[in-house]
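Z., the sequence and structure:
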Amino acid sequence: MIEDGKILRNIAIKGDFRLIEFQSPEIAAKVLPGQFAHIKIHELRDRVLRRPFSIYDTGKNGRLSVVFKVVGEGTGILAGLKEGATCNIIGPLGKPFSLPESGKTPVIIAGGYGCAATYILAKKSPSGIILIGARNEGELILVKEFESLGFEVRISTDDGSAGKKGLVTDLLKALIKEKKDRLGYLSFYGCGPHGMLTAAGKIIASAGLDGELSMDHLMCCGIGACFACVQKIKDKSSPEGWRYARTCKEGPVFKVSDVVF
């Protein structure tokens, strides 16, 4: 679905992180947890490729929100757009997360602003646990938002400026050890940098568990045409035992047990 989204809010939430809210009723009405929007920033002019953004939240009257970090020219221009400006949006795109089965507790592993892509999942799930990892306290976002949903938030930072010093995968290992007698009642989800997801997937698999990961790859077309964002997944019908899957079309969410790490 393609729609011109009028900007209702474009605000700083912490450091270089921003929240932008569009009036996009047709797309917002169809969003499922973990899906993304492919946004054309008209002001980029000759930069014709759209930018993919995880959908953070949807609200009343067709509101659609994304959380992003200013890291380059495209996000820099997006950060400067005023209320009333429009961006052309394609969405919602991608395979979504599955909601936890009845009686299961969600465990979300989020690296950096990967937590933004799991917020709708948390809203639609029973309260659970989210493990958030960041480089430092200044990179931590949305902690209060998850707490307001009733989630237990456990934090790690590389430099120890907030939470436990170390990696978010250290928190995951500790949780699996802590919950060893109730692992069958947990549903695991992950979103964040590719290296983090690879490590988390291996930890989950080595514990004899499964889960869902939103695999992080650079995207170009966003609709499955260009094969630039592929991920290796297992395929018994292939001579090699694997094939490439498009994260924009067949993903971004894949089962841990399907991914070739």
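The mean pLDDT is 94. The chain has six helices and 16 strands.

Let me know what you think.
H.
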